[in-house]
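Think of the structure tokens as a kind of shorthand, similar to the way a musician reads notation: each symbol stands for something richer, in this case the local conformation of the backbone. In the example below we present two proteins back to back. Begin with the first one, reading the sequence and then the tokens, and try to describe in your own words what changes along the chain.
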Amino acid sequence: MFKLLIFLLPLIVIANDLKKIKVQLQWKHQFEFAGFYMAEKLGLYNKMGLDVEFLEYDGTFNIVNGLQNEDYDFAIAGSSIVDDWQNGAEIYLLANYFKKSPLALVTRPEIKTPIDLLGKKIMISEFDLSSAHYRQIFDTFGINPENTTFLKPDFNFDSFDRLGIDAYSVFLTNEPYRLSKKNIDFNILSPNSYGVMFNDVNLITSYKFAKNRPLFIKNFVQATNEGWKYALENIDESVDYILEKYNTQNKTKDELLYEARESIQFIMPKTHEIGSIDLELFDDLSIFFYENGWSKRKKDIHNFYYFNEIKSNLSIDEKNYLANKNMTLNVCIDNNWMPFEKKENGKHMGISAEIMELIAKDLKIRLKLVDTKNWSETLEFAKERKCDILPMTMKTPQRLQYLNFTDSYIESPYVLATSKDRVYVNDIKDVISKDIALVSGYAHTEILKKRYPNKVFTEVSSVSEGLKLLNEGKIYGFLDALITIAYEVQKENYIDIKISGTFNDNWNMAIASRSDEPILNSILQKSLNKITDAQKREIFNKWFQLRVDEKIDYKLLIVIVVFFAISLIMTLYWVKLIHNEKERTKKSLQKISVLKDQL
């Protein structure tokens, strides 16, 4: 019994010590806020030690002002919060749940365009009336209180005639269903069709509340995101919970189910992560508010987002593509081409691995490494569409038949490695008759075989195999990228190998992707563009210097020192000889001059 009480004690303490948190909604209770309700139902807020209260909106006050006055801790609002923030409101953006705004005007059927609203009666809350969502069409078509009547909303709207109005601000997820059921004819004017695309259902908090609460806010957003995910996957259960606890509008189950289904097209969960922030869209809004003179100044939108993360700038089609791929892409690599890439214990390693890790994090995708025996098989898999991506590949005419390529993100000179007793060559033609080895399937192997069709090269499976043959004296030279040869020489301590030629052809490495799905190349290029030169340099230095300082070859160091010492001594000796010879020549000339004078 004692053990049971000890086990229950923490639960009793939590139950009696929950912190009260108030969340101000932007409308009445409905499916629009289902994610918050389900986070509550699942106990996700309670696990944080929170007792959350959801406050309905009555349309009579400014939600942002109430948040700053600490009337509540969190609030939900539309796109106009960007305008509020740029005009000095001390608020943070935490999450966005509706990627498109369902806010629109339901009008009498004869009202076809915004210009038809002039002189009419519009039922709209002060908060909506002041929002940029409506202001963009009201200002454009000259609709204002001087020529149009604006009325406070009646939350029991059932017909235009009963209220004597011509238009009514609604959410497209709700009222059209009710009107259709009552056989009321209507038209819809969506502000999204007359200017900037707005979003909605944004979670915000105040500077005061956010101060020194990073973990708390992060957990609250995470719990809400999980609540939304559950709500969308369990619509019937979510609707039943709203009917049970939050049905202040007396909606029927059919009405709530309709709202749930319609909400999905605005939340867009297949192409957008729940709660994610598209900072580019928010920046477009900030520019829109500023250029129209509503915001006093244009601010850096990154300072508005509390978590300050830069999100993907992909198009809808690109996001749909990744969603249809289940956010997973197959990757094939060269198993032994360091420091560029290799497979070790089933994992992708090297420079290309770290580049792809940054891209995967940016795109929020999973990369699945496909097992191949060697580079030649990797190329075959690419042709057979078993691979979506080859992270480090050089463009060739042959490969363009089945692959697309991003811009090159790393370059390396193409060089000839030989034994140290070979002379330096300026042109590959000077040694083309020699026994030269290349890696089978590599880009320059394709190029050289085409350039010299009568030449039979020794083809190896990897750089390490080629340099091993060279070190054993079985071939004259080995051709490959300077970076890979230098890395392997350092790693294996090949002191008898040197670079005997550097040629104009460079290795220009890019990310290759399957050509039958060209949209993937666009996605990869956008993500690659975000990787800075500093990040690339850091990755390159990490892998290229990995082995350099691992072991000092003192024998080689002594040989180098002795070589330079002997060279210095010989140089000084020849300088001395030349000096002595010049002195002797000078004296001889002086004697000849004296003899000439005597004659």
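Once you have a description of the first chain, move to the second and do the same.
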Amino acid sequence: MRITWNKSFGCVWLAAAIFVSISIATSPYKLFSDTHKYGFSIEPKTFTRSVVTEVTPAGSADKAGLKVGDILLQESVRALVLWLPPDEPPLTIKVMRGVNSVTATLPLDIEAMPMQVTVSRLATKITALTCFLAALLIGLVGKAGTSYRWLAAAFLALGTTWGSYTGPLLGAAVMALDQILFPVALFCFFRFWFDVSKEAGITTPRYWQLAVNAGPAFLMLSIGVALILGPGPLFVEIPLSSFEDPTVYPLINDVLGFLTFSLVAGYAVLCVIAPLKVVKDVPVASANKFHWIAAALLMFFVEDLISILNTISSIVFDFSLRDTSWYEYFDIVISPIQPLCVVAFVFICLSKRIVSFNFFINKTVVYVLTASALIIGFWVLKSNIESLTSIDQDTRKTMINAGVALLVFVAKQFKGLTDAALKKVLFSALGRREIELKRFIEQMEYFENARALRLEFTSRVSSFLHSGHVEIFDRQLRAYVGSDSGRSIPVDDNLAVELRASKSPVLGSTMGGQSVFRLLVPGAYRGSMVLFLGLYESQDLPTIRPDELRLLEDALQKLVTHLAFLELDERRQQEIGRSPVFQGGKGDSVVGA
């Protein structure tokens, strides 16, 4: 029996879903429950022993009599990790203080869950759910090819580790997954962009291939470090004398921790650089989809990058964001970004058509700047008018209302200026398509060769429509014939009849069936449809906006008018005995048909 990708991935996805479900069902931790403060910190002294490095005054550990320098044996650390207050009784552990054994009972010290922790936990669980959905969507019903399979594996890895709760049944497994699957996900995300660039024919930097080749070693190192620095010492026996040497093991601990963190940070940075590189070099016809996917995945890593930068800052500058007073609000704002990005990614995958990325960003920036200017203007106006104590309250209200009306007018003008400025400065590609087509419409009357005009027209319209494939169909007797492909559409065909009846552009979504066209635009001369422009269907084309349709109609109508003028001029020259400017070929007549 042949094992296909869908079967193998489906089994893995189902196993991960069952694992997460059991983990949640067996865990006493609740999403909105209170939290327990241990009141002390420990660091590994050897593979099987940990040392108390800090004791919070008046905390649980201080009340139990723990002191800095106490040694916790493997059994005590294991009991501490698996202790689940407040459902379990106070924990009694044994510590070594010098050569003596001391028993300490940790009392319960419960405090309300901070708001940022609650928001972060909720966002993490929502992210896990959406990651499972994204993995299933991409892995089973998404695009074929190895690149998107890597992406499905990345989302599945994150969904598994973020969706799990630590409990007595699966506690050790969940703790190990937290440190193993995140590096796996980073590598899979990077490998997705590496394979996508290969499929798109983009040349990748040499260090990308080195990062791919180093991936297996990176993952093996992550597993080993998870055993040594994670829950491994609690459940794994390693009979090495150096692992029990209190002078050697801390060095091994620091080196492995630094190496793993450096690699994780390196792959996280690659996950940001890679989509930027691919989007920059991807063919124009495919850029729209890549831009949206890249934006979603880039924002997905914002919180992780901030966490990495915070760790570096804590090590190098001894400064941590978590120690600042505004971190609570910062964490509340940043936590929902990841689930929103996954939801956006799923929406992109499900949507057949999405608006052009450049257009969306341009309009977003324009409206944000306009709204900001309007709010600031209103605040300044209101503050200055209310400071006029010599004027009664009714007059001040009238002045504020008049000022608001003026601000609305100014904001409308500001919006137009901002839109034009951003198109010219930041979003030149967006504005350039429209400007070039409008300029070409004005220059049509200078063409004296019908064939050259047609070729230039299709080239300009193709560029305007995001490099889509366009073709002109001319009326010839009882059919419309494509000028490039020779494709024939009878005049009594439903498509032609509908187009003549509408006298306006028809989108492919309204044609029904499996139409090969994305858009049809009729061109009329003296009340008859003498030709139409067809934009062929392509998954890479974004939604065509109403303003684009209007501009396209104007361009095609100007083309029909000027082609008719050229044909009449040619006939006139033939009648007076002069050589024609252009010997029309098949399909070049727009009037005689």
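Compare your description with these statements about the second chain. Residues 297 and 552 are 34 Å apart (CA to CA).
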